[in-house]
């Protein structure tokens, strides 16, 4: 960010536009990069009331990725001992106290994001919420 920060907002925007077509990326897997994109898009969209209909197949693959990973986000540890079940697609994982909800809401909970708790149900919601920092 500091590298692209200009003297004015217009200059900063110009610098960002110059890198739009850049092919460089952090040393992460494709699924990690997809997760970063979806989660951070939602970090911006949700507070603004903007909804996006992601393909359920893509969300299911992303949820599968997060349930088994602690590399970028500590999702695997966050959901340990819980059974997550999507209400809008085929995603399901784990055993134990149950948490149900839309796949996107489960992804956002796995990544510790607030703003989706009213979309979850089950006896594992309180545990998951506490592990996400209570937010």
Descriptive notes:
The chain is mainly alpha-helical and 135 residues long. The protein has one domain (25-131). It is 45% helix and 10% strand. The chain is built from six helices and three strands; from the N terminus they run ααααβββαα. It has a three-stranded mixed beta sheet with strand order 2-1-3. A hairpin with a 5-residue loop joins strand 1 and strand 2. The two termini are 27 Å apart. The mean pLDDT is 90.
Summarize the structure.
This protein is mainly alpha-helical and 135 residues long.
- SS class: mainly alpha
Number of strands: 3
Number of DSSP helical runs: 6
Helix/strand order: HHHHEEEHH
Largest sheet: 3 strands, mixed
How many structural units, i.e. domains? 1
* Overall radius of gyration: 17 Å
- State the end-to-end CA separation: 27 Å
Strand portion:
5-15%
Average pLDDT figure: 90
* Poorly predicted tracts of residues: none
Identify the quaternary structure here: single chain
**Approximately how much helix is present in the residues?**
40-55%
Which strand order spans the largest sheet, edge to edge or round the barrel? 2-1-3
Q: Using the alpha-carbon principal axes, give the shape.
A: elongated
